[in-house]
TrEMBL record:
Domain of life, source organism: Bacteria
Pfam families, sorted: KfrA_N
Annotated InterPro entries: KfrA_DNA-bd_N
Coiled coil: 95-200
Provenance organism: Candidatus Methylocalor cossyra
Alphabetized UniProt keyword annotations: Coiled coil, Plasmid
Entry keyword Cell membrane: no
Biased composition (Low complexity): 280-289
UniProt protein name: KfrA N-terminal DNA-binding domain-containing protein
Region feature (Disordered): 259-322
Chain ranges of the KfrA N-terminal DNA-binding domain: 13-133
Length: 322
């Protein structure tokens, strides 16, 4: 196949080279790739361009153009003679160069053909060897291929199962995440309620403590005031009684029948009043003693002084003790 392409390229090159010569010398046209391709009927522009370039170089195309222009400006007779001579020389030179080029191309093409044939034979041998190796490899690889296909099938099944598990896990994770978010929101709501209740409880406790403290202080002040008032009243009563005792003491000393309270204070036994008279008779009769001698004022004093500080039932203490 490669040798056929080389022969086609050589034929195209030769036809294009000859077409350049005919266009210039016979048709008096400047050769171009398009004109040459139209003339030979082959659209192999790369080979045609190479042939056109070689032809212009071989015939010295610039000089030919200058000669043609000069001949066009010269007289008709002189122009024909010089033109014929120039054309004959150019044709001979072109033919000689074309023959040389053709000979060189033929030798190169022949050498290339032989090399290509050798390469083709080597390639065919290599292809046959590769085909044999491929057949042996394929025969040996078919069981392994079947095993690999079975393994791939199992792997695909496992992958599908894992994918299903992954989707289920993702769904479960999404549900857990939603539940977690809901729980967090609920916890935040409960924390807010707890903080609000804690603040309300703290505020109420502080208010109760303040109220209890105020009431406690008020009761302390009230107790202190009542105690001070009671002590003042008791002190006034004691002072009044002491003053009364001091007033009645002379009369009590002068009345023999009413002297027993004083002796009782001093540890002496209580005497009986004589003849049922005196302070004791007045007390027994339930009447207040009058101003009679030995039983009037003295009897009243004895009745008042008999036990001026009776024990109180509420506390069991004597009011004389603070």
């Amino acid at each position: 196949m490669a040798g056929g392409k080389k022969r086609d390229a050589f034929a195209t090159y030769s036809a294009a080279y000859a077409a350049c010569r005919d266009l210039w010398f016979q048709d008096h046209l400047k050769p171009t790739v398009a004109l040459v391709a139209q003339r030979i009927g082959i659209q192999h522009t790369a080979v045609i361009a190479r042939a056109l370039r070689d032809w212009k170089k071989d015939v010295d195309f610039e000089r030919l153009q200058q000669d043609r222009l000069a001949a066009a400006r010269a007289p008709e007779a002189a122009r024909d003679a010089r033109l014929d001579e120039a054309l004959a020389g150019v044709v001979r030179l072109a033919e000689e160069n074309a023959q040389k080029a053709l000979a060189q191309d033929r030798a190169a093409l022949e050498e290339t053909r032989r090399a290509l044939e050798a390469e083709t034979a080597a390639a065919r041998a290599e292809r046959d060897r590769a085909l044999q190796e491929w057949a042996a490899y394929r025969a040996a690889a078919e069981p392994a291929q079947a095993a690999l296909e079975a393994q791939l099938a199992r792997a695909d099944a496992a992958r599908a199962e894992a994918e299903a598990g992954r989707r289920a896990a993702e769904a479960e994770a999404a549900a857990l995440k939603a539940a977690l978010e809901e729980a967090r929101a609920r916890i935040a709501q409960l924390d807010a309620v707890r903080a609000e209740l804690q603040a309300a409880h703290t505020e109420a406790l502080q208010a109760l403590e303040a109220r209890a403290e105020a009431e406690y202080r008020w009761h302390l002040r009230r107790i202190a005031e009542e105690k001070a008032a009671a002590q003042a009243a008791l002190q006034a009563q004691l002072e009044g009684l002491a003053a009364r005792l001091r007033e009645l003491e002379p009369e009590a000393r002068a009345a023999p029948g009413c002297a027993w309270p004083w002796r009782r204070r001093n540890g002496a036994p209580r005497p009986s009043p004589p003849n049922g008279t005196g302070c004791g008779a007045a007390r027994a009769a339930g009447a207040q003693p009058g101003p009679a001698p030995g039983g009037g004022a003295a009897g009243a004093a004895g009745a008042a002084v008999e036990d001026p500080f009776p024990p109180q039932a509420e506390t069991g203490k004597n009011p004389r003790t603070p």
